[in-house]
């Protein structure tokens, strides 16, 4: 069948966006996700997002990594908000459901401010750190992140089965100025460095902000600039976390995918 798709990017993190209110890929979507996200034999993307109807919220974001696994994706969520506005589902403000729970967001032009879930703590792991911001993130400070072996070192940490039986994303951080850090990320599910990672920069901003007693951090990634703000609750949790940055439609098209008719879930 022919599928209409749109391509969005948020600071270089790119996603295939599909209006999933009228169909699904059936009970086993993984082969189709992998095919469409393949950069040689498909459209090519870090992940795929289906926008689905929900009785209690404006929409539900169903996010898949390029390998078909599911997780929360901050940049993907910001793109989902922009796509939902394009579809006419929302206007400037929205409340929607993702795999890690309910989120709110506002959009102005191409800038999306996304409310992330609360984070209990940033843990110390030897000389490194860990936080779960909807997805797991290992973090390490390095002197010159531009010159660092992100893929080699990141892959080794990601595959450390003793420490991370289900794997983890891995972030490397350099300090550029008192309120600005630079982050590069090796992403689980993509199995490579991506140009940006929303949940990753959020984790890094919480780590750096707590260390420096700051609640608004600017982040530079290879794909562009983001900002994270937050508050510390009386219980020590990170609360009111907001990830802000651009989300842009790159192109749209139609692709034929061999989906058996009995696997298509027709909603209308």
From TrEMBL:
Site, Could be important to modulate the pK values of the two catalytic cysteine residues: residue positions: 137, 187
Highest taxon above the source species: Bacteria
GO molecular function: diaminopimelate epimerase activity
Family designation: Belongs to the diaminopimelate epimerase family.
One Gene Ontology term from the biological process aspect of the record: lysine biosynthetic process via diaminopimelate
Subunit field text: Homodimer.
Protein name as it appears in the record: Diaminopimelate epimerase
Pathway where this protein functions: Amino-acid biosynthesis; L-lysine biosynthesis via DAP pathway; DL-2,6-diaminopimelate from LL-2,6-diaminopimelate: step 1/1
Keyword annotations of the record: Amino-acid biosynthesis, Cytoplasm, Isomerase, Lysine biosynthesis
Residues annotated as binding substrate: 13, 65, 74-75, 169, 187-188, 198-199
Assigned GO CC terms: cytosol
Function statement: Catalyzes the stereoinversion of LL-2,6-diaminopimelate (L,L-DAP) to meso-diaminopimelate (meso-DAP), a precursor of L-lysine and an essential component of the bacterial peptidoglycan.
Organism encoding this protein: Cyclobacterium marinum (strain ATCC 25205 / DSM 745 / LMG 13164 / NCIMB 1802)
Subcellular location: Cytoplasm
Catalytic reaction equation(s): (2S,6S)-2,6-diaminopimelate = meso-2,6-diaminopimelate
EC number: 5.1.1.7
HAMAP family associated with the record: DAP_epimerase
Active site residues per record: 73, 197
Phylogenetic placement of the source organism: Bacteria, Pseudomonadati, Bacteroidota, Cytophagia, Cytophagales
């Amino acid at each position: 069948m022919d599928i209409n798709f749109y391509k969005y990017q948020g600071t270089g993190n790119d996603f295939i966006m599909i209006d999933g209110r009228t169909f699904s890929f059936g009970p086993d979507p993984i082969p189709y996700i992998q095919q469409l996200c393949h950069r040689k034999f498909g459209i090519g993307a870090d992940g795929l997002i289906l926008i689905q109807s929900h009785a209690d919220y404006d929409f539900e974001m169903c996010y898949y990594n390029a390998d078909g696994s599911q997780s929360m994706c901050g940049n993907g969520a910001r793109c989902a908000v922009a796509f939902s506005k394009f579809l006419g589902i929302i206007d400037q403000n929205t409340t929607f459901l993702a795999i890690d729970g309910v989120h709110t967001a506002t959009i102005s032009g191409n800038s999306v401010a996304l409310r992330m879930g609360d984070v209990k703590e940033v843990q110390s792991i030897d000389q490194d750190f860990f936080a779960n911001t909807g997805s797991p993130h290992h973090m390490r400070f390095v002197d010159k992140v531009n010159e660092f072996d992100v893929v080699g070192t990141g892959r080794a940490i990601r595959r450390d089965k003793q420490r991370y039986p289900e794997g983890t994303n891995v972030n490397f951080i350099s300090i550029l100025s008192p309120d600005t850090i630079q982050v590069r990320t090796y992403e689980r599910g993509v199995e490579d460095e991506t140009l940006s990672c929303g949940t990753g920069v959020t984790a890094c901003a919480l780590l750096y902000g707590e260390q420096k007693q700051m609640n608004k951090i600017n982040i530079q990634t290879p794909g562009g600039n983001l900002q994270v703000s937050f508050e510390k609750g009386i219980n020590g949790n990170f609360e009111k976390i907001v990830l802000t940055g651009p989300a842009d439609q790159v192109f749209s098209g139609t692709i034929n995918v061999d989906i058996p008719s009995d696997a298509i879930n027709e909603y209308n």
